[in-house]
Amino acid sequence: MRVLITGIAGFIGSHLADRLLERGHEVTGIDNMTTGRKGNIPADVNFVYGHIANGFPLERAYAYAKPEVVYHCAANYKDPQHWQEDILTNALGTAEVVKNALRKDVRRIVYFQTSLCYGLHPDEQPISLEHPLRPSNSYAISKTCGERYIAMSGLEFVSLRLANIYGPRNLSGPIPTFYKRLVAHEPCTVASSRRDFVYVDDLIDVAVAAEGSEPGYYHVASGRDYEIQDVFNEVRDAVGSDAKPRTIPHGSDDAPTLLLDPTRTLREFGWRASTPLTEGVPEAVAWYDENGVGETYTHLSLKG
User: Fold this and answer.
1) What is the distance between the alpha carbons of residues 128 and 146, in angstroms, rounded to a whole number?
2) Does residue 216 contact residue 151 with C-beta atoms inside 8 Å?
3) In the structure, how many helices (H) and strands (E) does the chain have?
4) CB–CB of 4/30 below 8 Å?
5) Which has the closest alpha carbon to 12: 86, 98, 114, 126?
6) Which end of the chain has fewer surrounding CB within 10 Å, N or C?
7) 179 three-class SS
């Protein structure tokens, strides 16, 4: 199978490329390296440098790939106030990906959507796929706009609405932030919010199978949420620290909890998230020890 991956130098895109190459697929990728790392790109990938909203590099990537399936992983999330870049990448960039897919007779697009599409205060927990979409920050609004462009295109698609994905190469969210502060002996802040955490290899199991599944929307989630304090404790133990964090209420731009109902995913894929935090967090920490973290990213105003 011939595949194009947008955002291939990023966390999810690079893990997906590794798995698809292992299975013998032909993989082309595009990335502008805003948050991606060169070392994440597998050697056997046909790589195009550029922004997905820029017509020339994206058209070149499609020309090289001649893709049957497009995995659209590229997203901007590094600054909650950078609305223009969120729109450029997540909305306009997705529209360009879709327009090219229509011209190139792509069979299917697989999209990676945020659970923040349901808003900060959903009507139900766990959240069903039928829940109204109420994105309320720039990242979620622009990602949901991209999802709608895909849906209205008429292309066959799968949209994977994600719990918090973590693991090696991840540079966003609490785990790399806690790691960076702990190894630097800096204070950590733990919010009172809760999240469902899914290890990246478990997500990739679903993503690879999604090229041949029933089209539509799916939740990639374990169905269990954890206190952020629990996540901090796992990172602290993996680092070998005895630090104690400062605990604060969740911020006004942070959902108290986002717990997704994965029933359809379990039914369609026969899949359950199988990697516990006690195994996944040490794997992420081992990668950080070897590769470093550098800058970390969040869509929230609180950064530590």
Assistant:
1) 20
2) no
3) 10, 14
4) yes
5) 114
6) N
7) helix
| pLDDT bracket for residue 189 (50, 70, 90) | very high
Tell me the DSSP string of 266-285: HHHH-------HHHHHHHHH
* Single-letter amino acid code for the residue at 231: V
The residue-averaged pLDDT of 92-104 equals 97
Closest-CA residue to 200 (of 2, 40, 31, 27): 40
Residue type, position 160, single letter: L
Task: Name every residue whose Cβ is closer than 8 Å to that of residue 267 and which is 6 or more positions away in sequence.
Answer: none
If we measure between CA atoms, which residue out of 192, 113, 153, 168 comes closest to residue 285? 168
CA–CA distance, 190 with 192 (Å, rounded to integer): 7
Residues 286, 275: Cα–Cα separation, whole Å: 16
Report the predicted TM-score, pTM, of the whole model to 2 decimal places. 0.95
Would you say 218 and 268 are in contact if contact means Cβ atoms under 8 Å apart?
yes
- The identity of residue 242, as a single letter, is D
Identify whether 126 is preceded by a cis peptide bond (ω within 30 of 0): yes
Structure tokens at 183: 């190894």
Q: Which two tokens stand for residue 172?
A: 């966003």
SS3 content of the chain, % helix, strand, coil (to 5): 40, 20, 40
Angle between helices 55-65 and 94-103 (to 10 degrees): 40
Cα within 13 Å of Cα(250), Cβ side: 18
CA distance linking residue 114 with residue 195, whole number of Å:
13
In whole numbers, what is the pLDDT of the chain averaged over residues?
Answer: 95
What is the distance between the alpha carbons of residues 255 and 131, in angstroms, rounded to a whole number? 16
Residues in a beta bridge with 113: 161
Q: At what angle do helices 228-239 and 174-183 cross, to 10 degrees?
A: 40
Residue 146 DSSP label: H
Strand-pair category, 194-195 with 226-227:
antiparallel
Band the pLDDT of 255: cuts 50, 70, 90: confident
